[in-house]
């Protein structure tokens, strides 16, 4: 069951509706994966459309999507706006033109050239349009229309981001701003002015996020940015695109995240300079007809069900994130998107019937899910998304993976409406505090909200700000501190402070303030229009007012600063603890607890209360840390006593454990905390941890210079290093103002640790040495604060609080610069490429590939891009919502699967459990269950547990994985450690594996040069056994050659393996031999007496190098190497003439004895790494006993059968069936509806079967035989055999055997077979489920719910699903080959085989043989129930888990170590 249904059962009646949008979301992701290589690639449309430079061909190419156009021309200043440059229709609605450079080398369309595209519509109408993907647009002052601008400045004028993104704030406080109005002067202000003047102000006020309005270009300045015309162009009114980048970069340096007000709910209806009729029709980017209009907004509406519209919008999101460095978005107009009615004329009371049904717009819902998924995928540590929704749509702020829309926050839009309504319609005596508390707390569980008392909506002309509602005309006459007092202003000041603090404290999990409202900005906001004579008089922010000492605006701002500082210290806004203990409408008293703070409000206009009893939960004295009556806030000093004295705890009151007596003056608020939280003074700690910005000088040279109230400098406080790992810090007895200076280090002057009063006449001290530090720091509350190298001071809480986490790094841009380097297809520069990799003529290819063409790249450290379809064959622009399994999918009501989740890996190649500690706990539980069931412990007593095991593999799960090899390598690492060996796994470092740490390096001679490789280490503990900790040392080899933009082994664009693979894996083999010798892990090296386990051809050179480079130099003389063949079909063949042994591999010529191979294409000019390993190693193992026999035959040996036969004759070859992970146990599997054991498996499987049928849309019938298939869709897996017999299987006949079956087919692969799956389902609804995709959780459920598992593979070296099936009591029907033959015991003869059979095997890879055995299986199922139960029991009693397999490995380790070396 999806978490949203678990947490809120009220959603269950609407499950079908919710699953409809989830199914559509999954369907689109599947479509993007299939066509583009995933949503991240799909969202790079700006690399296809717009202007793109081909430096090699000296030309620009411009592409536009105009699906209904008949003709198109690019026009502009460059061709005097004439139709001289026609575009070509290149298919799929795309129009394109090449723009070669002029003869003198200048661009045909130069930088800053204004342009449009001229379009002939489908009915012959001509129109001019601004290019949809244009990066900048300028407004013509005469026509007021916009033109697109070719914006490609030279490198010297481009701004490059320098500063990393801050982490996502846990206590987000948003400063809502508009760059154009952000200044005192009556004009449009710039991005750079915002950077220099407003960002430091936001930082000083204590906000940690800025939300920028009106960023995307919009035709009408007064629309506040809501009528967007150019979605990829920043508003040109405030500066250039590079100015905006510089502003955002500075915000990051200040520690502020930047959110953009994203308008994807609608667009401007403008046609010439907008998107509304881009191709001349009313249904290009929009819906046609009335559905494409939002009449109240005079806007046009996107069609979210079009493929290219989704590309445009998702690419737009990625563009702002990557190119400009935005950290997230406030999605505007979400309510309009959620409903077909756009919410017009509807009221929302919270009843679920209001949100679901015909009015719900599923297409928009799906788009919002896709958007949030993409944003979190791109920026997992920093991103924030906020929904502007007034309706309160359920699940809006639940994560996508839980079934929600994926937003982080919803704006609490009812809160400002409440305040304005009260101020307009009620007197102070009529305020109902119960209503106030209810409105502030009325939000859904687990769906965070951002609260605000007012935003830009209340500031715009026609409405009033809270300050204006409170004080109105007297703001013009009585705001002076030296003039006569005003009761109206006093009331306004008091209530303004209280309203903002109660909203912050009780209203949500975040807070928002509109620019200027923190100081009670006077008047309204009015953009220049014809009605006001195009005046900017009210289109600015009067930041000068709070700076005037004689004006009361300073009191408003001072309180806002302290309010935010209090929250930053005690972090109550996101605290889980929240309880309102008193909501007294008579006394007008509101009391609530939030986090560690106690808030006490007295809203009464006249009544003050002495000894008013306040209940609270803390058995400790309370101290006031903030009150609105302080003199610095324009108050009357009535509550000063509470700041210096404690309120002792008394008996319980108001349903709280304790209470205290307090004085509550009218119209005041007090915030109290426990006295213990105010102990210890102030600690300023320097940020020196991992990921923190580096200091440009030794941080110990810094000093604090305390300042008194008059600014006089006190005794300097040095930063000193604490003992242990406490870092560098300075301590003061209490809150203060201070400067940070650097003691002159160039000689002379007191050192920072001397304690001298630098600043008292010392000229050596350097003030403001931190680039973004304020002139004076101010700490208002005791606690621990972290100062970073940028000059940002962040409160982290108590004394031992950790440093803030790091964000998502420096924004990297989109790589769309004119002179940016072309994308690299390999990680090494051409000058470093080995000469042998630069052939003068096309090289010969081996007859057989070294890697399978179906490899699906899955990497954990740094995911590699998925294989992308060629750009010249995009899908139709009119594609509707893709078909998933079922347009009305069902959630899993009894498991966490929540429907099918498309995961692009292969059956038996995925695991849902990677944590070693969880694995160990699961193993212990399984062992305990076995003992309880009387299972005897027959494990092998290994004789060489003291010998370290070194596993070498080109991939290891979960860091890198393309198939079974990575899974098995990961299992080796865990299982040998659990057995008791000191275990190391060596693999390339393909990505930035975050948990691995640098541990050493070595230098390797290869390809005629010396290469330095670095080692990174990660230890994974498996637990402590007999007082000794067991675990695995994962060692990752780092070198430039392993860093690839695409797959581990091959380039999907070229469709073949990387040209330097031989070099890469030769380097891995030598590095793996060096690691045990040079790396000190856990206090010692592994030494030179180890057992190496090399895997597949990629490590085939390891035993060769061991022999020639080490044993011949008296190293590893007592070590041995076992070589494991996972797939004989891929051998590592390379031409010897291209890669000479001596110069390329640093091997002597005599090594040719091992490496010489033969190939149909290469002939004898061939080295074969797999055969070399088999010859040089001490023992060859395969992944099943029968596969070991098969590869010694001419049919299965792939040309190496004679060599392998010879190895077998030496008793140095065998096969060991791979094990299955402990997670495949029906007794403990969390992914199946009902757990069961051998004692109750029939009841358990029956329940699992019915749930599986229900989930997948099959008829719920316990009496039919349910057959399942999970695997890759390809010929080798025999999918065509299954689809070929389905009509026969489902057709009833007189025997009662056929016609009583259902089939589930789940897999990913060849589109031909995917089509057969879908066709089989569409022709047999309710009886066949054909699913083109993969969900490992559903695979678990199939193993538990199916009666039979079909595996008609042509060949199968090992195979795992057939073993999973038996562990769950599901009977396999398999082809007699490879590991299938080893792991399934067939019912060849009833009676004789009853006690041993675990399944049915057929010989002959064709439909007739499969039908023969399937008929026998169905006959047993329907007519011989006892026999079928016995077969199930036989399977359940089989043991195919890894401990069984690892015992077999231990036997071979003992035999290998105790025998002589093979060579």
Describe the structure.
- This protein is α/β, with parallel strands linked by helices.
- The protein is 25% helix and 20% strand.
- It has 33 helices and 60 strands.
- The strands form 14 sheets. A 9-stranded mixed β-sheet has the order 44-45-46-43-41-49-50-53-54, with helices on both faces. Strands 10-11-14-18-19-20-21-22 form an 8-stranded parallel barrel, surrounded by 4 helices.
- Helix 4 links the parallel strand 10 and strand 11.
- The protein is globular, with a radius of gyration of 36 Å.
Strand order of the largest sheet: 44-45-46-43-41-49-50-53-54
Look at the structure and give the mean pLDDT.
Answer: 87
Structural class call reads alpha/beta
Q: Report the count of strand segments.
A: 60
Largest sheet: 9 strands, mixed
* Beginning-to-end CA distance, first to last residue: 58 Å
- Percent of residues in helices comes to 25-40%
Low-confidence stretches: 745-767, 817-842, 853-912
Rg (CA only): 36 Å
- As a percent range, the share of strand residues is 15-25%
Distinct helical segment count: 33
Shape: globular
